[in-house]
Each structure stands twice: as structure tokens, then as C-alpha cells.
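Protocol check, entry for the methods section draft. Step 1: assemble the input record (protein sequence plus ligand SMILES). Step 2: submit for complex structure prediction. Step 3: store the C-alpha cells unaltered in the notebook. Ligand used here: adenosine-5'-triphosphate. Step 1 record:
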Amino acid sequence: MSAGAPVLFDGLAHEYAGPPAVRALERVDAEIPAGQLCAIVGPSGCGKSTLLLATAGLLRPTGGVVTVGGTDVRGRPGHVALQPQRDLLMPWRRVLANATLGARVAGVPREEARRRAQGLLGRFGLAGFERAWPSSLSGGMRQRLALLRTFLVPRPVLLLDEPFGALDAITRRDMQAWLQEVWADDGRTVLLVTHDVDEALFLADRVLVMSARPGRIVLDLPVPLARPRTTRHLTEPALVACKREVLAALAP
Ligand SMILES: Nc1ncnc2c1ncn2[C@@H]1O[C@H](COP(=O)(O)OP(=O)(O)OP(=O)(O)O)[C@@H](O)[C@H]1O
Ligand SMILES: [Mg+2]
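Step 3, stored output:
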């Protein structure tokens, strides 16, 4: 169990210089408390990845502020663990080396990173594959490996950009159920970008819906469901009402 940190967006805005200049984000305000799993949904191109990159300090927003644990992280990487939209596994490195890469970059000594990764391989469905090449893994295994790499980065906030985007619906469901279990005893804050409304409602404590570009938050909805959740919960009236609200905000 690790401690999470709060994330604060205060009037966050971003315009890419271009050409063409693109206004990607406009006045994003939100406070995500420590330990919350917050899903972010919105139309393609509305600035979701831009929001995560700004939070990761990899992109300096042109307006507003983003803080992690009270620290201004604009233009300052190293405060969060980011899983980018593509899994970016290194094909020339074996599973274990891929798993430990982010932790190593974050300064975790090699042996410690390997020991922690070894200890988690089973839970991430990769036991016995430590010496395999990424190319020999299934799509679901690759996604779990990318998640393991992110998970091992010792940071209080995890940013996951469409972590299941490349998977078919059935594998996705399995992965969501699995992620919920992995998450159950991890106290970190998570921002999860997804296109899938059911996925957002199934996994998150709260769903933020963004407008089309320039992205703003048009709905901030708590998910009134106890844990552990099952897919059966998705058909409960309270959840169906939530889904209706999210879909209405997505297509006003
Ligand atoms: N490096 C860049 N330079 C210029 N424009 C960019 C750059 N990156 C993104 N954009 C533009 O900014 C807007 C927001 O992009 P972003 O990738 O944040 O959207 P997104 O919500 O993550 O989309 P998707 O759901 O398709 O992943 C888009 O119109 C995109 O074309
Ligand atoms: Mg994106």
C-alpha cells in the first residue's frame, strides 16, 4: 500500500503553437483527492492526452496551473508515473527489463526493481515469462506488462492513457476486473483516460466528462457503487442513470 497525492487543475489551458495553432484545453478546473480513481472521458481530440502530459510535466501548459501533492509540476517531470497512449514496450528488451524500465529511470536500484517486478509478475499474469520477448506475448499480456511497468514506478499518482484501448471487448472486461483487484490494496491516485463509458463507471470513483476541443470539464460525476464491483452492477438503476448522464454530456 502506497500513499496517493492529490492532483489539482486550476484554470488549466493549452494551445499548441502549430501551425496550425490548436486550442486543446480551456479552463480545466478539478481537484482529485489523494487515492481517488478518477476516469476522464471525452470525444477524440478533446485534449485528454494533453491533460495527462501536462500533469506529467512533459508539456508546459500555456495557461493555468497543475499541482501534484501541492507542488507546481508545470514543465517538471518526475512527480507521477505516466502510461502513454501507446504501450511503448521495447522489443529488444525482455519482459523483466521492460517491466523495470520506468522504475530504473525513476532511480530505483536495479536489483530492487527486479525483485519487486519478480514479486508482481504472478499478479500481472506474466509468471514464467520474465525472459520472453514482448513480441511473443498476447495483446492482453502486453497491456499488463505496460501496466506493471507503470505500477512499479514509485510515484503517488498514476496516469493511464487508454490502457486497454487495443483490446477486444472480452479481454477488456477481464482486464478491468483484474485491474480492480490489483488496485484494491494500492492507495495511489489514478487518472484513467478511456473512451469506454462502461469501463469508466466500472472502475472509477468519479468520472470527469470533457467537451469537444477545446476540452473543458462539462460533467463531474461521482460513481455511487460499493466495491468490489462486478459487471452485474453496471445494470443497476443507479448506474444506468449515471451512464445516461455521461452519454448526454458526451453528446449534448
Ligand atoms: N504536438 C502537437 N502539436 C499540435 N497539435 C497537437 C499536438 N498534440 C495534440 N495536438 C492536437 O491537440 C488536440 C488534442 O489532442 P489530444 O491528443 O490531447 O486529444 P485526445 O483527447 O487525447 O484524443 P484521442 O482520444 O484521440 O486520444 C487535437 O486536436 C490534436 O490534434
Ligand atoms: Mg489521447
